[in-house]
Amino acid sequence: AETDLRHGKEGKLHLVPHPEDPERTVTLLSPLRPRFTLFHGVAADRRGNVVACPPLGEGAWAAYAATEGVLASVEAIVDDEVIAAMPDRVVIPANRVLGLCEAPLGAHPQSLRTGGLAGVDGYLDDYDFLTDIVAACKDPESAAAWYEKWVGGVGSHADYLERLGGTRRAALVFPPPPGVPVAVEKDRSPADGAAAPTEQEQLIVLGARAIVDLVRERGYDTLLAGIGTSHMSAWLAARLLG
């Protein structure tokens, strides 16, 4: 249970005796209860019943935990009967929603799977946009310029979409309309390995090695890969374990 992640979190992380081994301890985390939770879904009716399609990312737990309620955005606000026909898809009921707005491409630059619910198209991760964010955040001045361009200097969600451009938005739609190229279908030459590894690449490799050591030490046969860097580490570990 000992970890440096506890530092600076006194009063929020609590060490208690392990229920099966009194000589050990486990760490408990105080519940997170935000006043409001922001949530983006696939569609909703005008009463605020929000539907979503797996994968749900972090899920709706933060929405349920909010002490006052949810501020929701969706790809489309549809007629009540459309949502009434799919009650099993309602992730956040109307009685938890304080405010609702329509925001097409509202999860950008992340992807959104819709499964065709309510006739709404899904879209892919905008990896080029994410790459630009990483590059901009390496320097305080370029990070501030990026923030002003895409956040502070954008007057509305409609302005944000206009700045993205119609061609870029169309290329992200999944499944793609006929005749529109898919954003990820690009000729990306593999890296030649000449450049020094980035900090993120080093983190992925070190994480993979740590996973391999734990698997061999404790005999695990199943891994929860997670997303992002942890996902890359898990897959690399699987390759190393062969």
UniProtKB/TrEMBL annotation:
Keywords: Transferase. The keyword Transferase applies. It comes from the Bacteria. One of its GO terms (molecular function) is CoA-transferase activity. Belongs to the 3-oxoacid CoA-transferase subunit B family. This is Acetate CoA-transferase. It comes from Streptomyces sp. SID7499.
